[in-house]
Design brief:
- By secondary structure, the protein is an alpha/beta fold.
- Helix content is 53%, strand content 11%.
- It has 14 helices and 6 strands.
- The longest helix is centred in the last third of the chain and has 24 residues.
- The N and C termini lie close together (11 Å).
- 30% of the residues are buried.
Length: 306
Amino acid sequence: MNKVISLMGPTASGKTDLAISLSEKFNLEIISVDSVMVYKELNIGSSKPDLETLLNFPHRLVNIIEPHEQYSVAQFYNDLLDNFKDIYLSNKVPLLVGGSMMYFKTFFSGGLSELEPVSANIKNNISNKLEQNGLAHMYNHLVEKDKEIASKIHPNDKYRIIRMLEIFYANNKKPSDLLKKPLTTIQNLNNLNLSIIPGDRNFLHSSIKLRLKHMIKSGFIDEVEEIRNKYVNLDLPSMSTIGYKQVNEYLNGKIEKNTMEDNILAATRQLAKRQITWLRHLDGSTVYTFLDYDNIENRVKYFLSV
């Protein structure tokens, strides 16, 4: 069977450095599983590898869409399978690396449910209702139709609120029910799942804080300002991601710089906590800490040899 290695872990846990080290030693090709690195121009705030690193160690699914474009879990899954085909044709093994757990979950479950296409009529009706009644009304409408899915969406997340309402009206079923039913997997894969979970939460928090300081020093605020200036009058889904959202609020004069940094740290720590919780409940994954790189290398070597 075709082999796949998944290297998962919370944000700021050193996954990229480890992936590069493994790809130096073994016949692997890296696929990024990161919902922010897919965006072009979002470099500093996404902790994207620099251009030299990407040239020497190519990462698939990095820099594939513009800052004003949407990228869905379904698109990721389709792109992932396409990249698998290319990698296997070159007699290499895919190494999936990242912390976007919804992407991993979709891969492990074999894709999303089959959904009916959303008609132009449905899209127009929902768009008109949004314009007439506002986002708060649309969120409350989603709560009425599907309380379970609404509880997982922030009331200000316009894209996901609208998307879930579109799914509801196109399928006449609750999105929460539809999205629980994965496709029958067509994969014939031999998976090695590796999870990096820090033994010391304080060490992870320190790593997150140091990384943010490095981002700010490297010009993170300027990066966001340049993107805003380049895409004036365009809705930018990329600016709703952690870090970019807070810097955007700072540039809009809504918060002070110190508050911006505190908010980024708080949001990143919350993200790391959710990632760790998901990993702890993931069946069939071998758990390591920051200090187990040699053991991880040995595990990969054995997996590739059998």
